[in-house]
Structures are given as C-alpha cells and as structure tokens.
Amino acid sequence: MSSVENPYQAPPFSFAAQAAAGERADFIAKTYGHLAGAILVFVALEALLLSLPGIDSLVGLMIGTRYGWLAVLGLFMVVSWIADSWARSAISMSTQYMGLGLYVLAEAVIFVPLLYIARAMDPMLIPTAGVTTLVLFGVLTAVVFATRADFSFLRSVLIFGGFAALALIVVAILFGFALGPIFTVAMIALACGYILYDTSNVLHHYRIGQHVAAALALFAAVALLFWYILRLFMGSRR
C-alpha cells in the first residue's frame, strides 16, 4: 500500500536555518515577496475605500463614539487571531492565503479613519509616513541580516509590552483621555522590536513552507509601525 505525503505539512527539522542554502534563499525570497504583495494590496484597498461615496459616514460610524471604536478594535483582534491561525495552517496552502488576505483586509478597514483624518490635515502626511516606515523597516531588516542575530529573547518583552499597550488604549477609550506623544514614541519602539523579532524568526525559527505566516507577521509589524509614525507626524501638525 502506498501513501502520499501532504505537501503542506512541514517535515521534521525542516527549519529554514537548517535547510540547504538554495532552499533557505527561496524561503526568504517567498516571504518578502508575499510581504511586498500584502503591502501593495493594502495600498490598493485603502485607495479604494477612501474613494468610496459616503466614506465620511463610515468613518463617523467607526469613531463617532468611544464604544464604537472599542467594538471595532475588539472585532479587529478576533479577525486577526483567525487570520493568523489560518496563515499558520499546515493543512492547506489556500487556507494560508485566506489568512493573509483576511488580515490585510482587516488592517485596511481599521486604518480608514486614521488615513481619512490624515488626508484631511495634509495629503502629504500619508506618503511621508509610508516612506519613513519603509526606510526604518529596511534598516532594521538589514541589521538582522547583517548580524544574523537571534532576537527571540525579545518575545517576553514584546508580549508584555503589547498587553500593556492594549490595556492603556482601552482605558484611554473608556475614560476619554489622550495617550500623548510619549505613548506614540513607545509604540514605535515596540513596533521596531517586533520587526527585529519577526525578521530574526525568518532566519532562525520558521520552517520551510511557512512563508505565508512569516509574511503576515512582518506585515503586522510594518502596519503597527506605520500607524504610529503617521500618528506622530499628525501630532506634530496640530
């Protein structure tokens, strides 16, 4: 009796770090190719959403009340968890792509109010923040690839920082106070930590075949960095 191996199930010890040079290079190329694709789809979705008739009404619905925005954040967290679970699926490549696509869509929707306000303040804020984000991402990526350092030791710090930031955001929404520029700078630092962590995971801890999940993790970190760099620039214009 013959058996057919599941092509999406990663075999034991198939970490990219342990793979042959060509196989490892292919994994890295696929990861960053999918990241670039996710960013381009995100940009296209934002252009589409911001051009829709009645977009101001949608923005008002999302952020018109503190509880409305809290509900949006809660829904985004649930969708993000589902998308990440799908992207890490070892059963189906189509499920992995569905996870990445769902996450990009969720990010595009939650960014609409911020981009709408930024565009109204100054249309140049968005491209300036975008270029700054990509340059900083490129520098951090180059540091990891040049040093080959393993930043997995940041995991506990990032988890704690993420939960602390989430708690502060929820409290700020409930009680109606601004977190201020210090919080924004701290979140930029947290996003940079995630980029270092996720990039080093690409080199050391992801398995061959997990390029979709790796791309999603990197995209999430880039989106977080872009969000707070844009907020920082917006704050400087007020």
Describe the model.
This protein is mainly α and 238 residues long. The chain has one domain (20-237). Helix content is 78%, strand content 0%. It has helices at residues 21-50, 55-63, 66-87, 93-121, 125-147, 155-175, 180-204, 211-237. Helix 1 (21-50) crosses helix 4 and helix 6 packs antiparallel against helix 7 (180-204). The protein is globular and about 55 Å long. The N and C termini lie far apart (72 Å).
Summarize the structure.
The chain has 238 residues and is mainly alpha-helical. The protein has eight helices and no strands.
Features:
238 residues, mainly alpha, single chain, 8 helices, 0% strand
